[in-house]
Amino acid sequence: MPKQQETPTPRKYICTGLLAHVDSGKTTLAEGLLYRAGALRRLGRVDHRDAFLDTDAQERARGITIFAKQAVLTLPAAGSGPETCITLLDTPGHVDFSAEAERALQVLDYAVLVISGTDGVQAHTETLWKLLARYRVPTFVFVNKMDLRGADAAVRLRELRGRFGDGCVDFTGEPDPEALALCSEPLMEEVLANGAPAPDTLAAAIARRQVFPCFFGAALRLEGLDRLLEALQALTRMPPVWPEFGARVFKISQDDAGTRLTWLKVTGGTLPVKAVLPGGEKADALRLYNGSKFRLVNAAVPGMVVAVAGPARTRPGQGLGAEADAEAPLLEPVLNYRADCPGADPHTLLKALQTLEDEDPQLHVAWRDDLAEVHVQLMGEVQLEILQSILQSRFGLAVSFSEGGILYKETLTAAVEGIGHYEPLRHYAEVHLLLEPAPRGSGVQLAADCPPDTLAENWQRLVLTHLAERTHPGVLTGAPLTDVKITLAAGRAHQKHTEGGDFRQATYRAVRQGLRTAAARGAVQLLEPWYDFTLELPAGAVGRAMADVQRMCGAFDAPETLGDTARLRGRLPVATARGYAREVAAYTHGLGRWNVLPAGYDACHDAESVIAASGYDPAADVENPADSVFCSHGAGYTVPWDEVPARAHVDSGLTRRLSPAGQPPEEDAGARRRRAEAYRGTLEQDKELLAIFERTYGKIRRRGENGADAQKAARAALHTVPARTPPRPQPTGPDYLLVDGYNVIFAWDELRRLAEGSLDAARRRLMDILCNYAGYRRCVPILVFDAYKVRGGAREVERYHNLYVVYTREAETADMYIERATHELAKERRTRVVSSDGAEQVIVLGHGALRVSARAFAEEVAAVEKEIREFLQE
Question: Which residues form the Tr-type G domain (predicted)?
């Protein structure tokens, strides 16, 4: 039963985690620290199955920590400082439960890394060190079991400094000032001035991970524990807190009564009981746990770790209030298992596993509709056995797991464009994506580089949302896509017929079309998980071990000789390493030790066999089509993925960008047809614009023709054969080209990127481009820039080589100037206007001028520049 509610008093709150390789004595150390601090009256032992923090039956039976546990101890004030309340988090040491340990790291202020004095730094110890560095957790090191034969403090300290750096300093007695002086400049200055650093300076160096205090002792005999407690009290400081409420969730669990508990650390403000959390859920109760028991508190202050009853939608890693969400976990499972429960409905099993996934998101529970099977992802055999036990005890389900398969992934080795078009009747969306290889381990990165005049920003955000909302399957085995960067390059929507679901279809199809294109070019790669391994065995068996690693398609460093034993380190595929631990035990007669740690994904060592064995056919995957849907004569029809680029409505420009340097982009018959269709589309748009103009302003008549004359001519035409009218005389003199400067700058990728750094540089670059274009085409260019917001500004016209540059006056936009200019120039001269402004295009068309979009003009300029280069080369 919980005790009576009480409100915590102000203290220095420090959250400290205990981390170690399995069997290093971590739980024994926690037991000793609690006992020496007065939090326990009697010492328990792991081997006696009565340790204070081993509260689960499976933990006591196996003698290992499976779930992160919390204990609280209080250290008296030293001098004028406050008393220190330390929350100890005892984390799992077995590699199968390393995800649980990584989640606890998200809330730690300090950590105590426990190392066996006889075994030294082991494989999982190095992984924990990398995680501590990733989460920037200040670390104390406790070398345990120094009472056993073979434990040598000098050897262990040299090993620590060799593996983790010179910041590892012995603090068992008084630390060596010379060793501390090498860790940071402030420490060196104080050592040179006073002979030893001040405690505040030393505490600051520890907090910045410049010094890692090392302690040597034996937790079972309580040796060295007092010195460690003194350091935790004197050399730690409470991290800065948010002025408003903030908290970080690191764990979800259930108590014996089935109450869902959200474990969080408060990082700012105060969390009172019954408070409404960000997201609208209420904190019904705040529990301060100490082992398996808890007491209720009225409020949680910064630094406290509490279990909150009430919220139902929280998740590990979630930030509340001012606290941001945690980074994505570094460790992830590499084995996939199928769960079977003969005595229960598959959906009952699925619901139970989803409940456990809420507590451990790394299970990645998935339901396969095609096979009616439930799949989970696990780290290893021990976690599988624990999961079976939990399903039996909590849900009454006797679940068996099939042999775990390897979790493969797919990536790209070259950039490719993906196009998706979705246009059934009364629907429209087109998406162009650039898919590029990304660094190994980066996952899927999303970006947008699409001009707003091509696709509105609200549609762009929707496309990025659809890209992020699912895991995209590959085309080799259907494995998840990873280590790619997907950039939205272009797209199009319809003013009336586009809906949100249309862009979902177009986006998914664009990804698949790009992957199918890459696969046809041999640019899709299959990835598999790899292990970093450490093998310690008798020196006489090293030759056998090296041959085995080569047989398993692995690589290794030069063996290290340690007396009669040797150590071999390297990496190898997970698929070939399974079951090798039994072989090591057999040929070393139990003297060898085989440790492996996940090392991420890399190229598959036997991709062809894996692809063939999977039997995956991307064309038969109806849930993930690569084909597009176009519309013709009022009906939608399917276009195969390899014909989509020739029928696309938008030219993204990626074809030229992805062409090899110095080579023009390939143009096949489909590309020529698309260019011709684009030209016909421009003529159709001109007709549509003309119709809009005539509906708005009336029918366009020839000069000198009035309405009565038109009616008389129409009646006469019904009864007489019209005589051939002489053609209108063609305009004489040079052509005029009017360019809306800012419209072009922000429509061209090159100029837009240049304008982000310097708008003046972008203007100058456009002026140079137009000078070359006009000189080659023999036209009169007029470049117009808006200056209408400049108070009191008068119109300015400057001559730049063969180019006229106009800066409009106050209250006169570039559109207004171009409209008046075309009205006068188009009477006697051939006049073209470069702008993507739709309204402006309608008006200049009515004046008799030709309109050119900014994108189309960019292609003209590129063609002219190419002709100029060819002419100069000749």
Answer: 11-241
Residue 677 confidence (pLDDT) above 70: no
Q: How far apart are CA 276 and CA 263, in angstroms?
A: 16
- What's the pLDDT at 717? 41
Tens of pLDDT along 405-414? Answer: 788 999 999 9
The SS3 assignment for 788 reads coil
Length of the chain: 874
- In-domain check, residue 442: yes
Query: What does the DSSP 8-state code read for residue 559?
Result: P
Give the distance, in angstroms, between the CA of residue 132 and the centroid of all CA atoms in the same chain.
Answer: 21
Euclidean distance between CA atoms 627 and 88, whole angstroms: 56
Amino acid at 371: L
Alpha carbon distance 745, 796 (integer Å): 20
**Nearest CA among 84, 685, 102, 657 for reference residue 417:** 657
Token pair belonging to 832: 């073209």
CA 150 to each of CA 29, 117, 144, 535: distance values in angstroms, whole numbers, following the listed order = 20, 8, 12, 20
- Domain boundary among the residues 173, 202, 234 is at 234
Q: What is the CATH number of the domain that holds 402?
A: 3.30.70.870
- Domain carrying residue 34: 14-234
How high is the pLDDT of residue 404?
Answer: 60
Q: Are 595 and 533 in contact (CB under 8 A)?
A: yes
User: Rounded to whole angstroms, how far apart are CA atoms 399 and 346?
Assistant: 11
Residues 834 and 760 in one domain: yes
Please check whether residues 67 and 183 belong to one and the same domain. yes
CA distance 593 to 23: 13
| pLDDT of res. 719 | 44
Residue 563's CATH number: 3.30.70.240
Residue reference for tokens 């300290």: 157
Number of domain units in the chain: 6
pTM: 0.61
Q: Pairing relation of β-strands 69-75 and 271-272?
A: unpaired
Give the separation between CA 418 and CA 491, rounded to whole angstroms: 11
CATH number at residue 458: 3.30.230.10
459 and 529 inside one domain: no
Q: Does some domain include residue 556?
A: yes
Rounded CA gap, 454 and 200, in Å?
59
- The tokens 């084995």 sit on which residue? 335
Q: What is the mean pLDDT of residues 135-158?
A: 92
How distant, in Å, are the alpha carbons of 46, 475, 589, 592, 835 from that of 585?
A: 26, 40, 6, 6, 76
Quick check: 345 pLDDT over 80? no
Identify the CA nearest to 851 among candidates 741, 745, 739: 739
Q: Average of pLDDT values for 727-746?
A: 76
Average pLDDT over residues 591-601: 82
**Strand, helix or coil for residue 705:** coil
**Which position has the token pair 């998840």?**
480
